[in-house]
Amino acid sequence: MPPIDLPQGTLDLLILKALSLQPMHGWAISERLHQVSRATLQVPQGSLYPALHRLERRGLIRAEWGASDNNRKAKYYDLTRAGRKQLAAE
User: Fold this and answer.
1) pTM of the prediction?
2) Contact, 24 vs 61, CB < 8 A?
């Protein structure tokens, strides 16, 4: 199946929506987007992590290091108050 071209800003919105459920690390966000899209959306790391950093710079998400389910060090992302406000506005 060919890759889907997302309109500008769609990935950011999808990330905010995924994080509205709970804090997640990057791989879990990617898997969540893949799952809710019924396997039609596969976000490459080269797109996901720049989007996460962009959202963090804009103050819409925050990152904190923690341990993943398999006890590995992982960076967890969570919505800020501004991020929740932005998601509600979208």
Assistant:
1) 0.86
2) no
